[in-house]
Amino acid sequence: MDGLEPGRNIQIQSYKHNGQLHRIWDTTTILKGTNNRVIGANDKTLVTESDGRTWITREPAICFFHVKYWFNIIGMLRNDGIHYYCNISSPFVFEDGAVKYIDYDLDVKVFPDMTYTLLDEDEYELHKEQMNYPKVLDKILKNNVEHLLHWIRQRKGPFSPEFVDQWYELFLTYRS
């Protein structure tokens, strides 16, 4: 896909259902980009929140986006192992040099031992009311939570033992 060549730096932009910009990751290096999926990596990248606050990520991360699934997955390499943060979101689009998606509040945090916690259910319910999520969207999102949890339990895709390590090794070649 044009613009998703390996080694290229792009932004990641997260929006809310109402179109408001939610968060921007300034620099992510493309490791693999196709019409269906994007795998990228970043480390100590600037993140800008919708209110203008900024912060810097603390550790290397491998990011997985797919056009079929209503979630994206970030594998963070920490001293005690790989931690995952999974956003329940729209499938990504790539435009204007950025991977873009709608964040639907629900998140799954996965620990190195592959236990997990579903987060932000209250925030999801609040935004579902405020932004009038259609019933069909609510069903799609809840089905994708189940699909994501299945991947975690089965150690599929980005949760397979070697996935993050292999992509991180490739990322290191772009940094040297």
UniProtKB/TrEMBL annotation:
Q: Which reaction does it catalyse?
A: a ribonucleoside 5'-diphosphate + H2O = a ribonucleoside 5'-phosphate + phosphate + H(+); a ribonucleoside 5'-triphosphate + H2O = a ribonucleoside 5'-diphosphate + phosphate + H(+)
Database matches in Pfam families: DUF402
Q: Which residues bind Mg(2+) 2?
A: D105, D107, D120, E123
| The enzyme's E.C. designation | 3.6.1.15, 3.6.1.6
Q: Does the keyword Kinase apply?
A: no
Q: Taking every annotated instance into account, which residue ranges of this chain make up the domain DUF402?
A: 18-156
Q: Does the keyword Magnesium apply?
A: yes
Q: Which residues form the active site?
A: R23 (proton donor)
**Which keywords does this chain's UniProt record carry?**
Hydrolase, Magnesium, Metal-binding
Annotated positions binding Mg(2+) 1 = N87, D103, D107
Give the required cofactors.
Answer: Mg(2+)
Single GO MF annotation: magnesium ion binding
Q: Which InterPro entries match?
A: DUF402 (IPR007295), FomD-like_sf (IPR035930), Ntdp-like (IPR050212), SA1684 (IPR016882)
**SUPFAM superfamilies listed in its UniProt record:** FomD-like (SSF159234)
Role, per record:
Has nucleoside phosphatase activity towards nucleoside triphosphates and nucleoside diphosphates.
Q: Which NCBIfam families match?
A: PRK13662.1
Q: Which family does it belong to?
A: Belongs to the Ntdp family.
Give the protein's recorded name: Nucleoside triphosphate/diphosphate phosphatase
Source organism of this protein record: Gracilibacillus dipsosauri
